[in-house]
Design goal:
The structure holds 2 protein chains of 2 kinds.
Chain A lengths: L16 H36 L5 E3 L10 E6 L4 H5 L9 E2 L12 H5 L4 H4 L2 E5 L6 H20 L2 H7 L13
Antiparallel strand pairs in A: 1-2, 2-4, 3-4
Helix pairs in contact in A: 1-5
Chain B lengths: L4 H8 L14 E8 L4 E10 L4 E10 L2 H14 L4 H4 L4 H8 L6 H21 L13
Antiparallel strand pairs in B: 1-2, 2-3
Classes of the chains: A alpha+beta, B alpha+beta.
């Protein structure tokens, strides 16, 4: 065992007392408030999902029944996730399911395991709600995300093809 | 990741978004990229047959902010150039102008490919031989 031989040689290192006390308090709060928080967050999360689903070609990923109360992953078909984030990332902290920033260009393997095609996986955003999320923030998010989706669809060649009824499966894409 | 001010500006106020009539003989269309790869660009040029001058250029892009900015800037550069001059636009010029980081260089390559593809479409429609470009690895 490396270290100073604390705890009578059982475990080296100095215990993180503030961390231990803080974790205890967090558990206490969770026991008292988790049920209420979960109910409140589910309601906000459902509002977020239902409002965003008013946009055409928008899909909630994963099972909508058996799930955590505070997370949502939504695909906005024909707009790319990272481009979408850029429309509001000054004010809203979200992440995209695509990894266009990495050299691999691989979208989320979790979404793919859920059965999504690469195109929908590239068009997804992950929303996380927390204890301090308010309804006002949800309303703001709905508006910002909807506005950006509409704006980017106006400049998306795929959206235009979809609207014109072009069969995109038949196009010979230049994979790169 | 941090985007340069120029990328943010093109993203917020993209230039020349739109569609040209591809049934016209003097309109060349380039469609490059793939939905599964997370970026698709369509770039179109309208050419004055008499002078070979590009009189209009439009784009639509599915992709990240850098992809949108690269294609927006490309349309700006195309307008007012002749087709022969347009062939010379190099992706590294776009990288420099937009301060693209290394992971976003493929966006500029895609824009260059879109330009060349549009030019070749125009040439094909007008009975000219298609130009052959070196294969690029993205």
């Amino acid at each position: 065992m490396d270290g100073g031989g604390h705890e009578r040689g059982m475990r080296s290192g100095t215990l993180n007392v503030p961390g231990i006390v803080g974790f205890g308090k967090a558990c206490e709060l969770a026991r008292l408030e988790m049920a209420e928080d979960a109910a409140r967050l589910s309601k906000l999360r459902d509002k977020l999902e239902n409002s965003l689903m008013q946009l055409e070609e928008t899909y909630v990923n994963g099972n909508r029944e058996h799930r955590l109360p505070h997370v949502s992953n939504i695909s906005f078909k024909y707009v790319e996730g990272e481009g979408l984030l850029m429309g509001f990332n000054k004010n809203i902290a979200l992440s995209s399911g695509s990894a266009c920033t990495s050299a691999s260009l691989e979208p989320s393997y979790v979404l793919k395991a859920l059965g999504l095609g690469d195109d929908l996986a590239h068009s997804s955003l992950r929303f996380g709600l927390g204890r301090f999320t308010t309804e006002e923030q949800i309303d703001y998010t709905i508006k910002s995300v909807s506005d950006t989706v509409l704006k980017l669809r106006d400049m998306s060649p795929l959206w235009e093809m979809f609207k014109e009824g072009v069969d995109m499966e038949k196009i010979e894409w230049s994979h790169h | 990741m941090a985007y340069s001010e120029k990328v943010i500006d093109h993203y917020s106020n993209p230039k020349n978004v739109g569609t040209l009539d591809k049934s016209k003989k003097n309109v060349g269309t380039g469609l490059v990229g793939a939905p599964e790869c997370g970026d698709v660009m369509r770039l179109q040029i309208e050419v004055d047959d008499a002078t070979g001058m590009i009189t209009d250029a439009k784009f639509k892009t599915f992709g990240c902010g850098s992809a949108i900015a690269s294609s927006s800037l490309a349309t700006e550069w195309l307008k007012g150039r002749t087709v022969d001059q347009a062939v010379l636009i190099d992706n590294m010029d776009l990288v420099e102008e937009l301060n693209l980081p290394p992971v976003k260089i493929h966006c500029s390559v895609l824009a260059e490919d879109a330009i060349k593809s549009a030019i070749n479409d125009y040439r094909k429609k007008n009975g000219l031989e298609e130009l052959v470009f070196e294969e690029r690895i993205h």
